[in-house]
């Protein structure tokens, strides 16, 4: 048996998961779970990187108490990063993508490059949270920090640096920055020059599967290899999808990534018009997708009610929604109104009034609004992807936390009018584990990896039923 540890960080929580590989199957065992709550550091919404790194150490300790661990891989969300000074120390705390003010920067992008040229040069969806815009914002509003910076490390790269003392940027996480070329998948010289950035601040890009080094002896965890997995959580999740033919996927967590896996980027006018992105996947494949708000609004509603003394589980919320027969409004889940933390009930009411729709009153109606609106967003995005690629897809693989909800999977099938294949729920951790095993020589390639997933997890199928949503 070979045991490897996946440290899987989402934007709201994290897990330490041991992947036990034996007899052609992988068994995932969660050894630690923790919240990922942002903090305010120097009046800026930030990631509590020291606290999160302490959770990696707890995850290692708990895992080693039960298993002999050969290697470790870290995956995280994209776009956010830490700044490293000339002494190798972190400058402040990494800023949270929801807290960086990039609006003014976006209005001046044309001073550097046209949006068409920016898209052609990077293939990335134009989003105000992108690393490029965050970096320009820091240069403008916090020049003291920017000009002290010697290296920029994405969050997963930062954790690897803290574990090993070595700096590198894994290709899939680098591809979320709007700083890489969509064909070579290396740093884009054109973007670096156009925006007057210092190329020396960007660490070398390495492929997934690279054995970066071993955990520093001073951490006292023994000889454990640190492997660059597909460090963007979506890229790891896509690897775990047990499909043998072209497929659509929805990786559903705080964010939802809706897309398909291709062997080349798509940079046509429709892709730009629909604001679709090209990111790097395993073995330099392209994940052609759109970043959409995921279960964020549902999560915030849950927090809102909890603050009012109503602490419901997701199972209770689902039951409440299923029992809600009243029609409710549909919102644009990607509207800036819903971007930042706060009372989502007030914002949904505000949106409903502005769009002259029925106003939710009861908890079930608010949650129903969030779920149905998200499913509608998926349907719209899938239509855009099919139009841009010229392909037609009959099935959707739903992975991640959202795949655990039968209600939500059936709703997606109904609204998109396509079959939904749900699972694996721990897709990112599974993909993380698979890449470590490939790097260690335990698995030969992607095809074998996906067959192993089929043998290791149960995939549920949901066929579309006729329903009627709000007109």
Automatic annotation (TrEMBL):
Keywords: ATP-binding, Kinase, Nucleotide-binding, Rhamnose metabolism, Transferase
Domain of life assignment: Bacteria
Occurrences of domain Carbohydrate kinase FGGY N-terminal (ranges): 4-239
Family membership: Belongs to the FGGY kinase family.
Species, as recorded: Companilactobacillus zhachilii
Coiled-coil ranges from the UniProt annotation: none
Pfam families: FGGY_C, FGGY_N
CDD domains: ASKHA_NBD_FGGY_RhaB-like
SUPFAM superfamilies: Actin-like ATPase domain (SSF53067)
Domain Carbohydrate kinase FGGY C-terminal: 249-439
Protein name: Rhamnulokinase
GO molecular function: ATP binding; rhamnulokinase activity
Gene Ontology biological process: rhamnose catabolic process
